[in-house]
From TrEMBL:
One of its GO terms (molecular function) is oxidoreductase activity, acting on paired donors, with incorporation or reduction of molecular oxygen, NAD(P)H as one donor, and incorporation of one atom of oxygen. It comes from Suillus luteus UH-Slu-Lm8-n1. InterPro entries: FAD-bd, FAD/NAD-bd_sf, RIFMO-like. Residues 8-184, 300-386 form the FAD-binding domain. Its cofactor is FAD. Pfam families: FAD_binding_3 (PF01494). This is FAD-binding domain-containing protein. Keywords: FAD, Flavoprotein, Oxidoreductase.
Amino acid sequence: MLLPDNSTVLIVGAGPAGLTAALSLIHHGCRDFVIVDAMVEGQNISRAITIHSATIEALASINAADGLLSRAIIGKSIRITSRDSHIFEAKFDPLKKHSAHPYALFAPQNVTELVLGQKLQSLGIRVQRPHRVIGMKQNENDPRITDVSFDDGQVIRARYIIGADGARSIIRTISGIGFSDPEGPNLSNHTLSQMVIADVTFEPEPVGPLTIEGHLNGIVSSGSIFLLTPFGNHFNDELTRDGKPITKSIFRVGCAIPVNNGEPPHAPSKDYIQNLVDTYGPACITSDLSLNPTPVKIDQLVWSSRFRTHSAIADRTFTRFGAAIFLVGDAAHIHSPAGGQGMNLAIRDAVFLSEAVTKHIQASAENIDVDDTILQEFAEARHARALEIIGFTKNLLKLASLTYDPYAWWMPFSRASVRDLILRILGRFDFVQSRVAWGLGGLGRR
């Protein structure tokens, strides 16, 4: 497909951050942009599943929330349990004092991308595919323009470039921006340094409190945490792969893999996931008769993947490379999935970035010598916010990684058992519920 020779804004990457940036540009009055993606079509995989209250507010501010509100599962709480007993529940209902959206939304990332993409199409904009960026250089005639070249030989001259092209961002690399953990290299032997996630169905379908829709469940055990989120039949069509119909309820499962178990496979098999369920999962979904009087087994493995829980942040999220270059989403920062903050930060960054860009475009139209203060202030504020989120998720990960091994021979209780006891006690107080919901919902970190 032919690309235009010139564009005020070029968005590279059509994941949640790139699509949101496009929607926000339109909302703020800018339609002179092109959004490209290297893939032929969006990935038909789940990945991130949680959209928090502050993110729903940000999307609503650009009239882009309605589709997700009608499509997603309304999330009521995040629960922490052991394999057979309740520990703590962070309910979102207390947020009604602070937000018009006192809940989370649960939906596979490909559904989020589909809904945002459909909204963009309804506004007359399509993602241009497949177009992979292979180079950038400053324009010879205008020092404020960058010539962006693609693998098919086409070139776009742009004044603003938004790199929303993922953790291996070509925009970041060509711009010479560093990308590393703010606290230094991660330790590869961190207890929860590697995880596996999958979408599965069970036979027979499990029953019990943890299988009720609207809740994300974290099951803690020594050296691991297991995640379970029921999707019901809400996303069966969108998650269908290879033409195999899905008729049963789908569950998202995830599990931290202890480092002494070795590195998990790239696409874990059904048997591999079943072993994790039986070893670390809640009693209601295991095939272990000693734990579950009605044993269940994985029936269909819809999708699976692995990832690491490392953190990294770009040295800066705004630079000049001729054009004004911005990074959003995984191109700008990655971190632990604890608390489901990653995609949320990416979407909010994209909403606020496009507002800053349109303000700068308008200021430039009035004054040809306008400086980059608007852009720099935005970049510094969002960089600081990303550092906060990285710290927040690291603390959650440390809390989850405590083990049930005795602290010492003379002290027969463990750090994890103390954590569980404190959480059980604190969970009885409404103000604790409210503070936890506030932290997870992102309302203090917009």
